[in-house]
Design brief:
By secondary structure, this protein is of the alpha+beta class. The protein is 32% helix and 35% strand. The protein contains seven helices and 15 strands. The strands form three sheets. Strands 1, 2, 6, 7, 8, 14 and 15 form a seven-stranded antiparallel sheet that branches. A four-stranded antiparallel sheet has the order 5-4-3-11, with no helix packed on it. Helix 3 packs antiparallel against helix 4 and helix 6 packs antiparallel against helix 7. The two termini are 45 Å apart. Keywords: Membrane, Transmembrane, Transmembrane helix. This is Cytochrome c biogenesis protein ResB.
Length: 333
């Protein structure tokens, strides 16, 4: 009697407690709450999400270690090991993933600057090695207008020092240093300026106006010049249709005016006037011309292929298990 009681106490050890299905249910509830918190939080990879995934991994590993039924049947063992790998990969993916949105002006190079960034705390930043140049964009529209597709030409220098070119789009990415760059639906106009401060080196850059035609009525932007306390406001005004209603291709407006304002000063620069110098307090601002900019969705996740492989193994192992179960006795028995 005493020996039986000792065996029962041994069976109720710490490891079987970790493998309990009741604990699994509690962890799933905790995981659901963690996902909701992460969804409504600015930081998508919350500590609660990682903790719940880690607890689920421990629970599954304990179940594999304590359940003799799994060890006696190879398909079930493989299925649960693949399931464990999926949970671990999801946790690693949430810690190391990267998502971002960048804007690159036609003829300019990507410099590693992003408009939006969402990344895991363990992401190994290497986006500075993913340089490329935006060589131009062709966006076709059907009547409506309805966007048909984006073709963005990009160029880069490969590992051997050779110049490469490719055409990317919504579903065809440029892959550089494991970062995937997709040309998305956002695009617009960029005002090119040069700035020569009274003291210091000259600078050159772009002012990217809001995406067109999504923000067709608000083609203006305000920014601050280095060393100047007064902000500068600029707007693009035109009457023609860069995105034709009857269909066609996105293009620069044929006739336009650039309005620049700082404080009480205001200038109107016709599009055919060329380079224009504006004397401002603290230096000289030079309008250089009008170009387009292209928006890119950027993604980095090294776990995706491993997740696909683990999921395929889990499905095959489960199919193997049921095949063995149903073929153990004749179908017509």
């Amino acid at each position: 009697m005493q020996r039986t009681q000792q065996l029962k106490l041994g069976e109720r050890g710490f490891l079987p407690m970790l493998a309990s299905l009741k604990l699994t249910l509690i962890i799933f509830v905790f995981l659901g709450g963690s996902i909701v918190l992460a969804y409504f939080n600015e930081v998508r990879t919350s500590p609660w999400l990682i903790i719940s995934l880690s607890l689920l991994s421990i629970n599954l590993l304990a179940a594999i270690a304590t359940n003799r039924h799994f060890r006696r049947q190879a398909p079930l063992m493989i299925f649960h090991l693949a399931l464990l790998a999926i949970v671990i990969l999801i946790a690693v993916g949430r810690l190391t993933y990267f998502k971002g949105r960048a804007e690159v002006v036609e003829g300019e190079s990507f410099t590693g600057e992003f408009v939006e960034v969402d990344a895991g705390p363990w992401h190994p930043l290497g986006v500075d090695q993913a340089a490329f140049t935006n060589l131009g964009t062709r966006i076709r529209y059907a009547p409506g207008p309805v966007r048909l597709g984006t073709e963005n030409r990009v160029g880069w220098m490969d590992e051997n020092g050779k110049v490469q070119q490719a055409v990317i789009g919504d579903h065809t990415p440029l892959i550089r240093n494991h970062y995937r760059f997709y040309a998305n639906w956002t695009k617009g106009f960029a005002l090119m300026f040069g700035w020569q401060p009274e003291r210091g080196e000259p600078m050159r850059g772009s002012v990217n106006l809001p995406s067109y035609p999504a923000n067709a009525l608000t083609q203006a932007r305000q920014w601050s010049l280095p060393g100047s306390a007064e902000p500068v406001w600029a707007a693009l005004q035109f009457d023609d249709e860069p995105v034709p209603e009857a269909g066609g291709e996105f293009r620069l407006p044929a006739r336009y005016v650039v309005v620049v304002r700082q404080g009480q000063q205001r200038w109107e620069i016709p599009g055919d006037q060329g380079i224009v110098h504006l004397d401002l307090p603290g230096g000289r601002l030079t309008y250089l011309g009008l170009r387009t900019w292209m928006g890119y969705q950027v993604a980095w996740d090294r776990t995706m292929h491993w997740l696909l492989g683990a999921a395929a193994i889990a499905v095959l192992a489960l199919a193997w298990h049921f095949w063995r179960k149903f073929t153990a006795r004749p179908w017509n028995a």
